[in-house]
Design a protein that fits this description.
There is one protein chain. The chain is α+β, with helices and mostly antiparallel strands. Among the domains are: 143 residues, 2-Layer Sandwich (Beta Polymerase, domain 2), CATH 3.30.460.10; 56 residues, no CATH class; 47 residues, no CATH class. It contains 21 helices and 11 strands. The strands form 3 sheets. A 7-stranded mixed sheet has the order 3-4-5-2-1-8-9. A two-stranded antiparallel ribbon has the order 6-7. Strands 10-11 form a two-stranded parallel sheet. Bound molecules: adenosine-5'-triphosphate (ATP) and magnesium ion.
């Protein structure tokens, strides 16, 4: 990894552009990184757009290689930083966004015209420090507007995913969607069905993991997109649950975010049914589906039987992985219940929420019990007694196991 410490990503990308320019090609930063730089946000990646063909890029950077999924995109490593170099292109109608029906080398003007929104359609020449802005991107960035490049009707029809991208950029940046672009989105509702569920899920994940997630929820709703994203129409009045989440969340919290969203939507289906349905709609991983379901199940149990549950039951619930997240959500609608739960848990923790079991299956066998289906039942019952504080030593645990064994 030599070199990384001396040269940052932007400098490395500048060197790549400079090398291409020295070889006689046009080469500029393009798209998201230009937008982010102008906003004063440090870009996560720097994409370079160039007039050089992939073969010409390879001639300048012999070790560059094509990026599997995207035609005409080469990956160049510079001082250990990966930088994507894409040949200018014009794209025909999208079938499913990822694989344009035809791609050919093109001019910068054509490359700009195929991009989705004005703020994403700018280029920066890092060698001469010059902005190339053919569609008024800088003006829209200053005004806080998401506007399609060219005719909104055509651009959104070509690739319906752009409707969700518009929502993602608008919510993330706190921008508004220009009126015509917005009205086309409203008129295209049913057409979202043409895009792959995987891509829909990816957009939704990105917009909901962002700190402005409640505004994404609101925009999806006001543009009439939730029906085709999730299926089913609901009247959603506020996004108190989404808003209650901490600003910064990780990938691992997506299940919790979805649970919050479903609470805002007052979904009626039970935790398992709903998370299965959303898994299909958003192509969720099993992990995300399971954590969404777990959060909702804990929320449901806190509402339904926390106050009457036995100590063992409360401890088992409190020891679950998503318990804290669930209590936080409960506090949105029932702060009284949530604080009661938290103070009970503080008390319960004094005697251990999830102590190691005093007795296991091995111990029963060693004590001469016949291995069999009743083992688990007995071990669980003994563990409950341990959680309740009724059983405190191994001998007491074994004694209880014997009693239970004899009694049934
Ligand atoms: P982010 O910071 O979220 O990655 P980005 O603008 O870099 O935002 P990418 O999805 O990485 O978004 O795409 C890079 C650039 O490619 C965009 O800025 C835009 O110019 C263009 N682009 C991406 N997806 C589309 C699309 N569906 N239609 C048209 N242009 C697109
Ligand atoms: Mg990007």
């Amino acid at each position: 990894m030599s070199g990384r410490t001396e040269v940052n990503l932007e400098q490395a990308a500048t060197e790549v552009a400079a090398s291409l320019q020295s070889a006689g090609h046009e080469a500029f930063f393009a798209g998201g990184c230009v937008r982010d730089r102008l906003l004063g946000i440090e870009p996560d990646d720097f994409d370079i757009a160039t007039s050089a063909s992939p073969e010409e890029v390879q001639a300048v950077f012999p070790r560059a290689h094509g990026v599997g999924e995207f035609f005409g995109v080469m990956l160049v490593h510079r001082r250990s930083w990966p930088i994507q170099v894409a040949t200018f292109r014009t794209e025909g109608p999208y079938s499913d966004h990822r694989r344009p029906d035809h791609v050919s080398t093109a001019t910068l003007e054509e490359d700009a015209a195929r991009r989705d929104f004005t703020i994403n359609g700018m280029y920066w020449d890092p060698v001469s420090s010059r902005l190339i802005d053919l569609h008024g991107g800088e003006r829209d960035l200053e005004a806080g507007v998401i506007r399609a490049i060219g005719s909104p009707e055509d651009r959104l029809r070509e690739d319906h995913l752009r409707m969700l991208r518009a929502v993602r950029f608008a919510s993330r940046l706190g921008f508004s969607i220009e009126a015509e672009t917005a009205s086309v989105i409203k008129g295209h509702i049913s057409r979202l069905e043409g895009i792959s569920r995987e891509r829909i899920g990816e957009e939704v994940r990105r917009m909901l993991l962002d700190r402005n997630r409640s505004s994404a929820g609101g925009l999806l709703e006001s543009l009439g997109l939730t029906a085709s994203v999730l299926g089913g129409v609901r009247e959603v009045e506020s996004f108190d649950f989404l808003s209650s989440l901490p600003d910064v969340l990780s990938r691992d919290d997506f299940g919790t975010v979805l649970a919050a969203w479903s609470l805002d939507r007052a979904e009626e289906a039970g935790p398992h049914e709903l998370s299965d349905r959303w898994r299909d709609k958003l192509m969720l991983s099993n992990t995300d589906r399971d954590s969404m379901s777990e959060v909702l199940e804990i929320v449901e149990r806190l509402h339904s039987d926390w106050s009457v549950a036995s100590v063992a039951r409360q401890k088992r619930l409190a020891a679950r992985r998503r318990f804290e997240a669930a209590v936080r959500l409960v506090s949105v609608s029932e702060p009284g219940l949530a604080s009661e739960v938290l103070s009970t848990v503080d008390q319960l923790a004094l005697t251990g929420l999830a102590p190691d079991p005093l007795l296991g299956g091995r111990d029963l066998i060693d004590a001469g019990f016949q291995a069999g289906p009743r083992f688990t039942e007995i071990i669980e019952a003994v563990y409950d007694a341990q959680l309740e504080g009724q059983v405190r030593t191994f001998e007491q645990a074994l004694q209880l196991a014997g009693d239970l064994w004899g009694a049934s």
